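Bench log, entry 3. Co-assembly request; chain sequences pasted below exactly as received.
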Amino acid sequence: MAAPIAAGLGRRLRELRAWVPRLMQVRWSRYNPSYMEPEVNKEFYRKPLEELSEEEKEKMELKAVRPIKAAPPSLSSSVFSDPMVSKFTNMMMKNGDKVLARSLMTQTLEAIKRKQLEKYHKAPENEKETIECNPYVIFHQALKNCQPIIGLSNITKGGKTYQVPVPLKDNRKRFLAMKWLITECRENKHRRTLMPEKLCQELLLAFNNEGPVIKRKHTLHKMAEANRAYAHFRWW
Amino acid sequence: LDHGFGLPTAAKECLSSVASQDVPTPERPRGIFHTSESDPAKHTEQHEGRHYDIPLEEVKAVFPHGLPYRFQQQIQTFNEARVMVRKPALELFSYLRSSNFAHPAVRYVIYGERGTGKTMILCHVVHYCSRQGWLVLHIPDAHLWVKNCKELLQSTYNKDRLDQPLQASAWLKNFKTSNERFLRELKTQKKYVWGKRECTEEGRPLGEVVDQGLARVRMASDAVGVVLKEIKQQSQRGSFQLLVAVDGVNALWGRTTLRKEDKSPVSPEELTLVHNLRKMVMNNWSGGAIVTTLSQTGSLFKPSSAYLPQELLGKEGFDALDPFVPIPVPNYSPREFESCYGYYLERKWLQHEQARTEDGKAELRFLSGSNPRQLDRLAGPL
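Structure output for the full assembly:
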């Protein structure tokens, strides 16, 4: 990707200059296989040498000789970083505006916490333990409740396409849950409400196994159940 | 690295200072970062870094406007209003206590970087003065008067000036709730004619002028001017002390974003409200004090790194406010940071499991740089 600099020899040479992107990417997928992944977890470095297992000891020895890949910007060594939350933020992002997506996410988590804390402080003593105030717990549980168990896939056989029930991989389940939440908030709500408010409402409903996203999951399950007859079309 | 301010040592020094005082007996035991002394007059260095509680009825009476929005949200979430006692506030209290009311009013300017707690210190001072029985003239944010004004009317009193009915009536409404007692006791010194059929006679309570301003919204700015003039004249007699508390005083001498109908820019002295407020902030009256705050956050045409008085006030403002007592507000000291962190933990504001660990605390301290606003913003989603 070297850019041959035109030394002012002529307009033609200047036009022949290769296109260079404004941001020079450092981390490629075309790394040499000898490059190792960076280790960001602080706990790993605090462990004394004796506690390391065999593989970890080998890895530590390799690190002395092998080069290490550049850490991607989304990898954080913060104790508060959560991969699910980062994934969700990336899915909410539009036109690469991560700053906006992240601020919307923080506002959502804060809104959930505020609502739950208000309920908590006004509740009588015996009900206080039942109210969950941790926004991360609510977020994870809501996503788990929204994940479908079985999905449908289009299989063409004999000229006709059938909707065949198919088991889903974990990644696909997580993706579908997040996608449904975001589309539900973007499309089916009043135009003037802000995204953090809408998301907060949806997450709290999903946490209690209510709401439109859970309904969508149930309709998918029912369709899969209805199309049980075509299950043998699947060959994987 | 300063590990000496971990919880155990902070606990020991706080407990030792508590033991030397009169031991308060709360209904339920609160942490060491609280104090049950809810009268600001009795706050001393022993209370520094601790949070004191303002009863919610008092909050509604004393602060109809003036508290920052995020603090109002905290009040609603936690169902209580807790303010931290900090050194600049204690300094101001000592100055106010020892001030001579026969001399001209002293001006205090609270300045500091963004998010260090200047508005909260001003609110603390306002609470102190209202508890002491002063008449408090609290302008929550002078920047709101120089930007985003939907209605600009030509003033009937002076053809060159412009009125702002909405802002004036909003301020009058809040002023009425916070100072009902004084509005009944103080009487007008002159007859004021509002229109062909309306006038306020001499000797009527000031509350009538305020009601006139609220009823006739077009006259609201003039009503504000009348109220300010009357209060200024009468405070010199010594029957009451007057506190003029202005947040964002640098708005009075800057530029505005308002334009007249012929698209020419409006300068601040052409606005009635700003003109009258500038007269209040002069030190040509006695019988009270003027406490102001500089604010870059709402300011217009000022760089975000500016926080010193000379930078924010400009030459005109500095000359107008000179001489003043500058009161710098720094970021949280280690003790104040511990106190704030302990308060958030106790009120269950920090919900993340990692936030309770030493690592989490160190990370919060590093990321916020001990800046109160940053800490509040960071602790929000956690």
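The beta strands of chain A are 150-157, 160-167. The CA atoms of residues 48 and 71 of chain A lie 24 Å apart.
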